[in-house]
Every structure is written in structure tokens, then in C-alpha cells.
Specification:
207 residues; alpha+beta; tt1808, chain A; globular
């Protein structure tokens, strides 16, 4: 008789999630949880957002999403060095959008709008917000986020899609989604002079 497969060691309060689970997964907030206070958020590996009254969890980034997010930050960082009147954020930059709390892969603010930087979520909508799709991210869910961002003051959203090699742009001015493929450059943003990168700049490390 075959021996049963050895189960991984888990903590008593840990629940193994089936491989078929659909992310993001809602988790129970800690007893002291205050969505406005980052010190009360779970201290677990992975990514959390607070949306529509629910604390949502996503696993850590995979290799592809991580590499593309780094390329995004390289593009924005190189541009900012030539435009010091702006501030660039990344690394799941915390943004409070109404009652929701999101983490952005990239963002650009006007420095005068940001003022003195402080811990916690930014409550100033950036001019540009960037989301990089992971293996489990659905474009329809990312599009829903883009609409929420724009409805709360963000001017432009870039959805960077590694699987298709495209950048999907949503603007407050048009309220439409426009796709840019690898042989194109992203449409310039009027408020961000000179920021119109080639789509291939976001996928350089993918080779």
C-alpha cells in the first residue's frame, strides 16, 4: 500500500489554498486593522489591497512581472532625472482612492502637488498610474481598477501586459482604452513632457 504524500509543515492558523483558487483572495483583517494605517496591515509575504471594504491578497510577483515592473521603473526614473519637477513612485506605491487602498507598480506626481513626503498612503492622485499584469491578473479586473483611478483624479493609466507585449492606455480625457503594440510608442501625456516611451522599453529584460 502506497504511503500517503507527506503534507508540508504549516502553522495551525494557515489554510492551504487549492491550486484552482482565483486571486485576489479576500482575507480576514487583523483585529486591530485600520485601512488608513499601514502599521496595522498584515505582515505576510505577498501583496495586499483594500477594495470595496474587503482586504484582498495576491501572492508575490513572479519572475516575468518582476522584470517588467523593473523596466517600468527604469523608464520612469530615467525620465524623472530630466524632469525634477516631478516625483516617481513604485514598489507597490500606496494610493488611497476614495475608501479603497491600492498598490501601484509605477506612478508620477507633480512635485508641487505632493509637497512634503510622509509615511502612509498618498491621497494625491498621480498624473500617471502604472499597473503591470501578473500571471494571475485578468485584464478585465485591471481595466476596472483603471476606471476607478481615473474617476478619482488620475489623468492617465498604463496597463502593461507582458503576455501580449502591449501597453493598454486609459485616459481621463477620452475614457477609452487604446492598445499600443511592440512596434509603437506610447502616446505622449500632455502633462508629462517628453514621456512617450517605446513599448519595447517595458520588455527589455524579457529578451
Amino acid at each position: 500500500m502506497a504511503k500517503p504524500a507527506k503534507q508540508p509543515d504549516v502553522e495551525e492558523d494557515m489554510v492551504l489554498v487549492p491550486a484552482s483558487a482565483v486571486f485576489p483572495i479576500e482575507v480576514k483583517p487583523p483585529a486591530c486593522f485600520d485601512p488608513d494605517d499601514l502599521r496595522t496591515w498584515p505582515d505576510d509575504p505577498g501583496r495586499f489591497e483594500y477594495v470595496d471594504g474587503r482586504l484582498l491578497y495576491m501572492p508575490p510577483c513572479g519572475e516575468i512581472q518582476s522584470a517588467v515592473a523593473a523596466d517600468v521603473m527604469y523608464v520612469l526614473g530615467a525620465w524623472q532625472r530630466q524632469h525634477p519637477d516631478f516625483v516617481v513612485g513604485g514598489n507597490e506605491a500606496g494610493l488611497a482612492v476614495g475608501d479603497n487602498k491600492y498598490g501601484l507598480d509605477g506612478a508620477v506626481w507633480r512635485r508641487d502637488d505632493v509637497g512634503q513626503m510622509k509615511p502612509g498612503f498618498s491621497r494625491v492622485p498621480p498624473i500617471l498610474a502604472v499597473e503591470v499584469a501578473g500571471a494571475r491578473d485578468k485584464e478585465v479586473d485591471m481595466a476596472r481598477k483603471a476606471v476607478d483611478y481615473v474617476q478619482h483624479g488620475v489623468r492617465v493609466v498604463w496597463l502593461v501586459m507582458p503576455e501580449s507585449g502591449e501597453v493598454v492606455v486609459f485616459t481621463r480625457a477620452s475614457m477609452k482604452f487604446e492598445r499600443f503594440s511592440k512596434d509603437m510608442s506610447v502616446a505622449p501625456v500632455e502633462e508629462l513632457p517628453g514621456l512617450a516611451p517605446a513599448v519595447t522599453d517595458f520588455f527589455r529584460q524579457l529578451g
